[in-house]
């Protein structure tokens, strides 16, 4: 290994395994995998390729530039952009054959006008209906008008699907999911009565695909579960067949003995009650390790044992209390992942910090190299 020791390791076999399992659970629905935000920090291109190899039907992204990155990498599978995009992005959306999401007449018209300028016929559009998330999407009572507008802008546009997004699917006891599904079904009935073929229907996110069979319809959109992270710690048991794909690792860069009574790091927020061996690890909050991780009991694995982080996490480094145990420069440090029979997960960090595993992995910065054991070469673009 050359270069910086702090890095993200992504197990593409785990991605393939998880896609296969999720496809089996969701069958006969097709699986669209979500690779926005650089594949939730895992590396969008490599993850997309692995997921497609495992049988995923297509990909979902948040931004046009995310879809363009995949196209430029040679990926030809369907790519759905999950929200309406700024008008100055519509040209690239059309030219790269990205499936558009629409929930306004103005966007449908802008898309159709751009398709006409480029002599494109049948550019695929999916309508997004807001059934309770109250973020983006058309009101249910506007769906027929929008569906009709897409048909009216034929031959430039074609209606390929209708979807919604679940707000509370990770809470299996919440009545909200059933109500959202009911509202969606009313919309689909209204469209069909109006003579509008809705195309592919999709409701389920990861939690929906796993825990709410009624939400599986023609397609499911799986994100966090594909990466082997349960949508919520309460779902860990039902997600036990999934394999975490990401590890965050480093190596000890410096070791010293700190005497009893001495303090460490900025603000001297931690003072040692006894003489202690301290290991420095070259990774910090600029890499995505939360600065306050030490204050909520954060630890790393060294020598197969959890070792507490002490003092505040600094921009480029953090310090670890080894107690009486010794370690050496170059010893492996696991921040997220497995070492021996011990494991630290992204959800462990999330629970400690009052957030979710999604935020933890998405926050891992671009200066951490992504390595893909077994792949042809590391992805140095990340």
UniProtKB/TrEMBL annotation:
Keyword Isomerase listed? The answer is yes
**Cofactor(s) needed by this chain:** pyridoxal 5'-phosphate
* Taxonomic path: unclassified sequences, metagenomes, ecological metagenomes
What is this protein's record name? Unannotated protein
Q: Keywords of this protein's UniProt record, alphabetized? A: Isomerase, Pyridoxal phosphate
Q: HAMAP family given for it?
A: Ala_racemase (MF_01201)
Please indicate if the UniProt record lists Metal-binding as a keyword: no
Q: Which GO terms describe its cellular component?
A: cytosol
What would be an example GO MF term here?
Answer: pyridoxal phosphate binding
User: Matching CDD domains, A to Z?
Assistant: PLPDE_III_AR
Name the Gene Ontology biological process terms.
Answer: D-alanine biosynthetic process
NCBIfam families according to UniProt: alr
């Amino acid at each position: 290994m050359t270069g910086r020791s702090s890095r993200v390791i992504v197990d593409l076999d785990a991605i393939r395994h998880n896609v296969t399992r999720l496809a089996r659970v969701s069958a006969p629905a097709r699986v669209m995998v979500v690779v926005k935000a650089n594949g939730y920090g895992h590396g969008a291109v490599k993850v997309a390729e692995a997921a497609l190899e495992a049988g995923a039907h297509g990909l979902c992204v948040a931004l046009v530039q995310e879809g363009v990155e995949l196209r430029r990498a040679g990926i030809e599978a369907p790519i759905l952009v999950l929200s309406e995009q700024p008008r100055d992005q519509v040209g690239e959306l059309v030219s790269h054959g990205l499936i558009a999401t629409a929930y306004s007449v103005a966007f449908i018209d802008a898309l159709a006008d751009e398709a006409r300028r480029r002599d494109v016929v049948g550019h695929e559009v999916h309508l997004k209906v807001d059934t309770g998330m109250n973020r983006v999407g058309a009101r249910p009572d506007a769906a027929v008008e929008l569906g009709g507008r897409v048909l009216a802008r034929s031959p430039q546009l074609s209606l390929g699907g209708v979807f919604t997004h679940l707000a509370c699917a990770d809470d299996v006891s919440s009545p909200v999911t059933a109500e959202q599904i009911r509202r969606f079904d009313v919309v689909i009935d209204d469209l069909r009565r109006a003579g509008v073929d809705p195309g592919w229907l999709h409701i389920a996110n990861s939690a929906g695909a796993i825990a709410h069979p009624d939400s599986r319809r023609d397609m499911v959109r799986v994100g966090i579960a594909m990466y082997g992270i349960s949508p919520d710690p309460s779902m860990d048991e039902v997600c036990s067949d999934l394999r975490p794909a990401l590890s965050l690792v480093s190596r000890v860069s410096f070791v010293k003995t700190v005497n009893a009574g001495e303090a460490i790091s900025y603000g001297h927020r931690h003072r040692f009650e006894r003489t202690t061996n301290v290991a420095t690890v070259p990774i910090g909050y600029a890499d995505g390790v939360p600065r306050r991780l030490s204050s909520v009991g954060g630890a790393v694995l060294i020598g197969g044992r959890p070792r507490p982080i002490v003092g505040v996490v600094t921009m480029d480094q953090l310090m670890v209390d080894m107690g009486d145990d010794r370690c050496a420069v170059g010893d492996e440090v696991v921040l997220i992942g497995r070492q021996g029979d011990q494991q630290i997960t992204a959800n462990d960090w999330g629970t400690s910090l009052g957030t979710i595993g999604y935020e933890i992995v998405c926050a891992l910065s671009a200066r951490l190299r992504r390595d893909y054991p077994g792949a042809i070469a590391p992805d140095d673009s990340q």
